[in-house]
Amino acid sequence: MRVIVDRDLCESNGVCEGLAPEVFRINDDDELDLLQERPDEPLRSKVQDAVRSCPKQALSIEED
User: Fold this and answer.
1) Are 57 and 47 in contact (CB under 8 A)?
2) pTM value?
């Protein structure tokens, strides 16, 4: 699984960070940092929740 962030849509609301802090982080410049582009399988459900919960639909998952 690969996490994709559409930087044109992302408003760095931080919902994803709250749901999967191992994968997403809002940095000091209020921009989203992707900590793991290819998170391990045990994080799948957290990442899926973050993707579904993104208010701007800026996140997606690409299967390898």
Assistant:
1) no
2) 0.94
Bridge partners of residue 61, in order along the sequence: 3
DSSP track, 21-61: TTTEEE-TTS-EEES-SS--GGGHHHHHHHHHH-TT--EEE
24 touches 16 (CB < 8 A) = yes
For residues 37 and 2, the answer to whether their CB atoms sit within 8 Å is: yes
Give the tens place of pLDDT for each residue, 9-62.
Answer: 999 999 999 999 999 999 999 999 999 999 999 999 999 999 999 999 999 999
Count CB-CB contacts under 10 A for residue 55: 10
